[in-house]
Each structure stands twice: as structure tokens, then as C-alpha cells.
Amino acid sequence: EPEVTQTPSHQVTQMGQEVILRCVPISNHLYFYWYRQILGQKVEFLVSFYNNEISEKSEIFDDQFSVERPDGSNFTLKIRSTKLEDSAMYFCASTDRTSGSSYEQYFGPGTRLTVT
Amino acid sequence: ELKVEQNPLFLSMQEGKNYTIYCNYSTTSDRLYWYRQDPGKSLESLFVLLSNGAVKQEGRLMASLDTKARLSTLHITAAVHDLSATYFCAVDSGGYQKVTFGTGTKLQVIP
């Protein structure tokens, strides 16, 4: 069964450093998302991406964040200058949203980001 | 802005008992999802509810959707320890848009 993959599974970085989280969505999906979950809290939407551009972003997704689809398979989230409060689990998701589909978002296993 | 609330936030129950988790949301939506999350793990899809009156069952779990009341329920029948996890409902805003998650219900089933 196709699945969303994410790398790395765990990233430790120092405050102020840049990190890139990588995702490979399911191959025939066209809509991509990033969510984050601070330990013990609910899952929060960050950004949605379609047709090579951001379709919606949350208040969390400020200028420190950017997303990119550099090739036909990868979808990346970059945090330019990490802060302690960026420590969280980051989930990538994708969906096809075509007629007849369930519109369900399929989630990757997550990347745990620890900022020290 | 779509708000999604779950209750209870924490549920401790004995094996063999029944209980219901409630998910209320604030704006119209025809698509609602239930996920299970084990500690430190990703989100496992449990149910996809796509229309008013939808009811889905899998093992000891049954989910329903009432779009008019903006309410979904996740009913647990004869709980077993393996069901211990955090359960999230999530509501689809439509279009390209995000899925908004509820606050989560941490379920602990005591043997």
C-alpha cells in the first residue's frame, strides 16, 4: 500500500540553525500539507500546498518557514532560524482530492525536531 | 474559524466497559475523520465519515456523524487494554483546505 515517508525520523539542532524536513508524498497525490504537534498537544495545521504554491497557511507559518517541491517527488519544510519553541513532531500529509475520493489525508510517520 | 472540541479530554475506564467520545465542531462540514495515536507515533486512520448519518464500525469501535448537529461520536464497546491511546477527530474544511484536529481524548483502559 502506498504511504507517505518522512526523513529524518529525528533531528536535533541548535537554536538559530536552519533545518530542512523532507517528505515524499504518495505518488499520485496533488495536495500536500505540513502539520506539527508539540508534545502532549493537539495536531496543528501549518501549510497546504497545491500546484506548486501555498494554498493556505496558519498563523504559525511565519517568515521563518518555507515549503518547496524541488522535484517531482519530494516536499520539504524549511525552518530558517530555529527557536526552542519549534521543538515538536512535524507530520507531512497528502491527498488526491479527486472526484470520488474520500479526501482523506494520509499522514507520514513524522519527524521529531528537538531544538537545544 | 473552524473549532473542533472533544470531550472528555481524558478517559480512564475498566476493561469490558462501554464509553463514548464526543466531537463537536463549529461550522458546516460533510467530512470527518477519526485517528488513533500511540505515544510518539504517527496518526493511524480509523474512520472516514463522509455524509450525514454515516456510521462505521471496526472491531470494538463505532463512529457516527450527524452533520446537522455538527457532532460525531466514537463509541467503544467492551474496552480492552490494547485500545489505550489518544483519539483525535479531525474536520475537513473543504477545498484545498486544512483538516482541523480536535483536542484529543487520551484513553486509558485498565485491566
Helices and strands in order, then pairings?
The complex is a heterodimer of chains A (116) and B (111).
Chain A: E1 5-7, E2 10-13, E3 19-24, E4 31-37, E5 44-50, E6 53-57, E7 65-68, E8 75-79, E9 88-95, E10 106-107, E11 111-115
Parallel strand pairs in A: 2-11
Antiparallel strand pairs in A: 1-3, 3-8, 4-5, 4-9, 5-6, 7-8, 9-10, 9-11
Chain B: E1 4-7, E2 10-14, E3 19-25, E4 32-37, E5 43-49, E6 55-58, E7 61-66, E8 71-76, E9 85-92, E10 99-101, E11 105-110
Parallel strand pairs in B: 2-11
Antiparallel strand pairs in B: 1-3, 3-8, 4-5, 4-9, 6-7, 7-8, 9-10, 9-11
Tell me about this structure.
The complex is a heterodimer of chains A (116) and B (111). With 116 residues, chain A is mainly beta. Chain A has no helices and eleven strands. Chain A has a single domain, classed as Immunoglobulins (Immunoglobulin-like). Helices cover 0% and strands 48% of the residues of chain A. The model of chain A has no long low-confidence stretch (mean pLDDT 92). Chain B is mostly beta strands and 111 residues long. Chain B is built from no helices and eleven strands. Classes of the chains: A mainly beta (116), B mainly beta (111). Chains A and B meet through strand 4, strand 5 and strand 10 of A and strand 5, strand 9 and strand 10 of B.
Overall mean confidence score, pLDDT of chain B: 92
Query: What value does the Rg of chain A take, in angstroms?
Result: 14 Å
Secondary structure: helix percent of chain A: under 10%
Question: How many whole angstroms does the radius of gyration of chain B measure?
Answer: 13 Å
- How far apart lie the N and C ends of chain A? 37 Å
Q: Indicate the overall shape of chain A.
A: globular
Q: H/E order of the elements of chain B?
A: EEEEEEEEEEE
How many domains make up the coordinates of chain A? 1
Number of helices of chain B: 0
Rounded mean pLDDT of chain A is 92
The count of strands of chain A amounts to 11
Uncertain residue segments of chain A: none
Largest interface: A-B, 25 and 22 residues
Question: Strand content of the residues of chain B, in percent?
Answer: over 45%
Q: Secondary-structure element order of chain A, as H and E?
A: EEEEEEEEEEE
- Form type of chain B: globular
- Number of individual domains of chain B: 1
Give me the secondary-structure category of chain A: mainly beta
What structural class do helix, strand and pairing data of chain B support? mainly beta
